[in-house]
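Propose amino acids for all 277 sites.
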């Protein structure tokens, strides 16, 4: 494959290689993606984001984890793709096709991007989890962790509300929970601590990418779970490891909205050597 231009972007430190396949076909296999994701020999990313044409939207956005697997949603990556599209053609709103979902993005006057992420799926079969249950509090017994909540934002999330985030060994328990038989499609594992009536601190072990500095869909899942448990009302600031925050809102029965920054770090070219199959 010939050299391929890319954008290196991030949302609160959750970082992406973004490729534009709207005018040239870009097909990367899992091996190529893992090579590009390698932070020593490649470029490094948590997710690769591919923008392509859509018949029913301004663009189609797809996401791939650093282990080469596909992700059905990515909040921070969606804002980054929207930022590129807004830079190219400033306008009030964009419609983005992400899997089955049609998302809407808006660039605010302060430069942040607001995305309507669609409705959370809350049935146990939709998360999915292996055991029929109420996903507000799921019967997963794991060490001394409390029972998690389950949510799909187009991708699976388990959210554990803990008293003290510093006491959770995320790098150890994250991979065990990601691949726990309770989550048949694996899952993104969030650990949330309530800091106030409108403030949640969140750390996420991401499926297929490991511990990341931020996770947009994870922030949506945490807010939805906190609302369902009566811990917050319909809005919260979610503070992430990368610094900064996402503002998430959700009213039961409606879509989740996520607002936050999207940064362009640099533009580059993926070498033919890196893209060799
Ligand atoms: N970083 C993302 C979520 C990425 C997807 C995830 N690892 C999966 O496999 O579902 C975000 O900002 O939402």
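Proposal:
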């Amino acid at each position: 494959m010939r050299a391929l231009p890319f954008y290196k972007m991030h949302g609160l430190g959750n970082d992406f290689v973004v490729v534009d396949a709207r005018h040239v076909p870009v097909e990367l296999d899992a091996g190529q993606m893992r090579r590009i994701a390698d932070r020593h020999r490649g470029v490094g990313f948590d997710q690769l984001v591919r923008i392509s044409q859509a018949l029913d939207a301004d663009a189609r956005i797809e996401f791939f984890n650093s282990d080469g697997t596909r992700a059905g949603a990515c909040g921070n990556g969606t804002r980054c793709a929207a930022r590129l599209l807004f830079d190219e053609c400033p306008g009030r709103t964009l419609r983005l096709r992400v899997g089955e979902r049609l998302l809407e993005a808006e660039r605010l006057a302060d430069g942040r991007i607001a995305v309507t992420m669609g409705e959370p799926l809350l049935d146990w079969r939709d998360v999915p989890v292996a055991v029929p249950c109420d996903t507000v509090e799921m019967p997963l017994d794991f060490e001394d962790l409390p029972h998690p909540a389950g949510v799909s934002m187009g991708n699976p999330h388990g959210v554990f509300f803990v008293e003290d985030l510093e006491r959770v060994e995320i790098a150890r328990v994250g991979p065990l929970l990601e691949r726990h038989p309770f989550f048949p499609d694996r899952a993104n594992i969030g650990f949330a601590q309530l800091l106030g009536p409108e403030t949640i601190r969140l750390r996420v072990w991401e499926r297929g990418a490991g511990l990341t500095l931020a996770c947009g869909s994870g922030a949506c899942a945490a807010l939805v779970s906190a609302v369902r448990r009566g811990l917050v009302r319909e809005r919260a600031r979610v503070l992430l490891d990368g610094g900064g925050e996402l503002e998430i809102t959700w009213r039961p029965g409606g879509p989740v909205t996520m607002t936050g920054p999207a940064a362009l770090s640099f533009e580059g070219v993926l070498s033919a050597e890196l893209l060799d199959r």
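The chain has two domains: 4-118+262-275, 149-254. The first strand starts at residue 4 and ends at 11.
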